[in-house]
Amino acid sequence: MKLYWIELRRSPLRLWFPLLVGVDLAALFGRSTWWIGEWPQASVQAQIPAFYFAPLLAAAAAWAAGRVDRHNVHAQLDAAAHPRWRSELVQLSATLTYGLGAYAAGVIAAVIVTLPKAGPGFLWPSYIFLGVSLLITYAGIGHLIGHWLRSPFTGPLISGLGGLVLISWMGSPKRLGLFALSGDPFKEISQNALMARALMAMALVIAAVSLRRKSPLSVGRVWNLSAHRGRTLVVGVLLCGSILGLSMAGPVQVARSAPSQPLCTKGTPRICLWPEDRKYLPEAEGMVKRINRLPRRLFTIPSEFQERGLSGPGEPFSGFFILEGSMWNPAATMAGSIMHASWPKENGCTLPLGSRLTPQFRQASADLTAWLTVRIFGGGTPAGIHGGPPNVSMPAMAQLADKPEGEQMDWVKSRMQVVHNTFCS
Amino acid sequence: MNQLELAAGPILRTYERLHLSGVYLTTLVLVGSVEWFEVGPDPTITACRSLTIWFGLALLSGRIWGRWLSWILPAATLFPLTYLNVDTNGDARWWDWTGQPASHAPCWGIAALSAFIGLASFFLTPWHWKKLRTKKF
Amino acid sequence: MDFTVGASGLSQGHGRNEIFSGLQLQIGVGVFGLLGPNGAGKTTLLRTLATVTPPRAGSIEILGKPIESEKDARAARRHIGFLPQDFGYYPSFSVYDFVHYSAWLREVPSKHSREETLRVIRQVGLEGRMKSRMKSLSGGMLRRAGIASALVGSPRLVLLDEPTVGLDPAQRLEFRDLIRSLENVTVILSTHLVEDVAAICNEVIVMSSGSFVFRGTPGRLSSLAPNGGIGDTPMEQGYMSILESHPAGTR
């Protein structure tokens, strides 16, 4: 332990630690704060800084590992009674302490801001551990690279920048799944995937502290060469096994089982949400009121709208998801669902296909869906939404939604007539 | 070698200046050519502006931590430029020199400032600093 | 006869390059000087005795235990203090950290490591600089810190490779007093400085081209000085005459 405290006190990361914490908090709060009040989203947000910390920690670990060469301490370490892996492990632990410490600061901040608003529950530990395993993985890789590349700057450069390129290119949830970008409540971390990543992290740490180049002072001989070779083989097998396990573990995020009691608005239609999204319930209730103001002679309103994952596969438009804290996407999904339910169903009216799908029909359909979206959302479009369906001007729809009700209904009727004529021609 | 270089004559400094100029201009030409042929004049100017900013930061970084670690400050810009660079409307922030168009004046201000600080950190040796400090205004 | 370190038929080399072969050695308690020209194999011999590198052939015994495996080597290192010629240090470490780190490397029991560290720092006269960073020390202070790191934990065998490099004359005198003060310890001192050997060593071994060409007391080495020989002191003259009779490159 004493040596650990020496390494901690003398690590170059000690001076950088406040900056690391600053970066973590900037990553947490600097881009958006919509995640506050939802435990799964807060968990993912707390984990996101690992995306940047991991390459940074790799560079730091490479720099720390390279100090043996930079300061020519081979002779003392070669003559040590302790096996070499112990001093390597202590050093790597000190580097990791700073990285994980800055990461923990962000986690604590996420808890503090989310706790008053989110209601029952807590951070989902699986997301936090995903970030931890990423940090440990990269620290291990950096330590290994720093040990093997004797140049004082190539190791940190390759580990840091190369690590960033790798994580950006291959690390997304759809590829290696090294991090998660979204904490939708209908998804959760796969335990197998998490275990595989944790094992890979451990394997890399073992490799980092065990595998090393021959000391430059060596006259070509080592004690117990067969044990060295055996250890190298074991570590190699461990690494290959962990990579194999990673590839076989499946996607990092999997569908989550629906709760027996979703959170739903009162009355009809019902909008049902995952309990974790309780902060959106007041908005959902507002949407119900606005839906009920739609003319029933023109629109057929489904009895229930559900957030994605609450029901099995069924109605194509029945599962909405709340994107980045905005109810815009749910409004659009509900609009699509209402349009689908409102298609003409009389005898002789069929879904237009092929040549019957005229541009006029497409335009009318898109216009109506966009107008419904704006109405259900409550007017206007969110600041971050810049587009809409093809050939539809969302600002124009927002303006239309502000016009007198009579004018809007005339517009709706004209569009519905096009739809009806196309279905029933 | 560092100790020997500190006691070197003027010729080393001449070569340092030539080397830096050569590196900057070569990179400018290479990056600019590829950008021009691939995407056109506006992104080319933006890329050259970005290069100038990073170059200045690299010079400052090298002065603070040593030439081997010139990449620290440029690398540090990756985080704000990739994660904090858009506002809630999805637009590039005013300081996002990679996202703002070529005509955006504040980013040119950043380029000028970075180049100034970078060159100052290169040219202002401890002797220059001493002269500046003891100069009576 | 009890000896601290013994070697029998000791050979060392790298590829086709043989550094020494067939060395026989038994050293007990006392201070032993290892003299020889550059390339004689002194540093390699010390590294081999420090169990850093296994011998190519032959055997080593440390404190009566044969060193036949890495496990034996590590166990022996608890009793060996080794100061390499070219020792490195982590510049941000303080003197205390550096010596304490060496104590940890040698598995000095943690309940004693603090007092041991303080003791040896005092012994080498660096207690006023205990909290100073290694990078702030002068060459002589660094060497003293290195000596402290070799002495921490009271090892039974102390191997010092050029320990007085960078020390001023007064510090060299203090170093000699320090070595003389060690009790019940075997010290092997590899150096170019004949006067250090003359001042503190009980016995001298002269090594040339991988062989021992002389072993005896400093007095006996001095007695071998021919009239008008090369050197300023009898011991230097004796040393040079030994080397002349065993030119480098011959065995």
Automatic annotation (TrEMBL), chain A:
Keywords: Membrane, Transmembrane, Transmembrane helix. The chain crosses the membrane at residues 12-30, 50-68, 89-115, 121-141, 153-172, 192-211, 232-252. This is Uncharacterized protein. It comes from Streptomyces triculaminicus.
From TrEMBL, chain B:
The chain crosses the membrane at residues 20-37, 68-86, 106-127. Keywords: Membrane, Transmembrane, Transmembrane helix. This is Uncharacterized protein. It comes from Streptomyces triculaminicus.
TrEMBL record, chain C:
Residues 5-234 form the ABC transporter domain. Keywords: ATP-binding, Nucleotide-binding, Transport. GO terms for molecular function: ATP binding; ATP hydrolysis activity. Gene3D superfamilies: P-loop containing nucleotide triphosphate hydrolases. The keyword Transcription does not apply. Belongs to the ABC transporter superfamily. PANTHER family: ABC TRANSPORTER, ATP-BINDING PROTEIN. This is ATP-binding cassette domain-containing protein.
